[in-house]
Amino acid sequence: MNIRCQCGSISFQTPTSAPISLYHCHCTECRKQSSSAFGTSAVFPAQGLFPLSEELKSKLRCWTRPAKEGRTMDCYFCKDCGVRIMHRIREADGQERDTVSIKGGVIQDLCWDGAKHIYTRSAVVEIPPDAERWETTPEIMGDRPQSRGQARD
Fold it and tell me: Alpha-carbon distance 88 to 113, whole Å?
């Protein structure tokens, strides 16, 4: 699958032919990042993309923001048009996760079926009643024990 930013300066292939998972995140950070009601992230293995090639690295800017539980998030943007391309989480000990979240809107031919909704407690739009959803973060994403598991709003 091809990744392409709005101006076309960024263009590369996803590490695999399909994402591991697809999430619509309704948290306030993703709403700000996407300038919309939610942000969409397609999770892919980082291997095959990271470490970034020198050519791709030269076209991106990285902003690192704090995340919960001592983690940080490296957020990558196109230097020319400013479109968010992807982000990767670093654990509190500095270790990078083995996955990368690529923003859904930059992936050509992405299949949007089966997207899961997370941080639904902050949702400002209706979530389809049959959608898989969590009030905060699913267990697979490594949240705190009291927030784990599927919850229905």
Answer: 23
